[in-house]
Amino acid sequence: MSKSHNDFSDQELIAKCRKDDSKAQEMLYKRFYGYAMGISLRYCINRDDALEAANDAFIKLFKTIKTFDDGRLIKPWFRQIIVNSAIDNRRKNIKHLAVLNIEYADEAPADHNIISKITAQEILELLKELPEMHRMIFNLYEIDGYTHEEIADILEMPSSSSRVYLSRAKEKLRRLVKAQFYLNYERAI
């Protein structure tokens, strides 16, 4: 009986992949597919783009796995590859994006009772409502922990632009929360 991808440690699979073992590559793919798609979906417009980015990331992983430092954990290293692949896939379309002007208005402070009831899935759905550049920078900064300088290098823009896009993303999210959750909350009272 052959072993499944769960029967090997990450290090064992990496060692086999370094020897171009296609079965080990398949096992590593199965092990990290969900992880790769979860990250890609946050950066891509649709599932097809996310799948393309995830598969590109696996190709890069297998091409560079021989240089992987055994002292590191594979997930953070692969996460970097996935994020870069997703951004590379989107970069070709960035120059075609229209920058939306957001009109700012004084907003009432958020009701923390409502905010605490919003699920992670609902937040991810709200992120899909953001313009692409806003969503990408929000993900890079708030979720993946990049600095504005790193984002500027990745997206080839001034770091001040990254700050502006992040600010606009947060403002748009505030408006979306208010529009989608406060109305339902007030109706429920």
Describe the 3D structure.
Pfam families: Sigma70_r2, Sigma70_r4_2. This protein has 189 residues and is an all-alpha fold. The protein folds into 2 domains: 5-94, Orthogonal Bundle (Rna Polymerase Sigma Factor, Chain: A); 112-188, Orthogonal Bundle (Arc Repressor Mutant, subunit A). It contains 9 helices and no strands. Helix 1 (10-18) packs across helix 2 (22-43), helix 3 (47-64) crosses helix 4 (74-94) and helix 7 packs across helix 9. The longest helix has 30 residues, at 159-188. It is elongated, with a radius of gyration of 20 Å.
What are the key terms here?
Rna Polymerase Sigma Factor, Chain: A; 9 helices; Arc Repressor Mutant, subunit A; elongated; transcription regulation; mainly alpha; 189 residues
Strand content: under 5%
Provide the helix percentage. Answer: over 70%
**Number of DSSP strand runs:** 0
Order of helices and strands: HHHHHHHHH
CATH superfamily label of the largest domain:
RNA polymerase sigma factor, region 2, helix turn helix motif
CATH structural fold name of the largest domain? Rna Polymerase Sigma Factor, Chain: A
Distance between the termini: 60 Å
Q: Look at the structure and give the mean pLDDT.
A: 81
Judging by the overall fold, what is the CATH architecture of the largest domain? Orthogonal Bundle
Poorly predicted runs: 96-110
Question: Given the C-alpha coordinates, what overall shape results?
Answer: elongated
What is the CATH class of the largest domain?
Answer: Mainly Alpha
Question: Which sheet architecture does the biggest sheet show?
Answer: none
SSE-based structural type: mainly alpha
**Tally of separate helices:** 9
- In the residues, how many domains can be counted? 2
Instruction: Tell me the radius of gyration.
Output: 20 Å
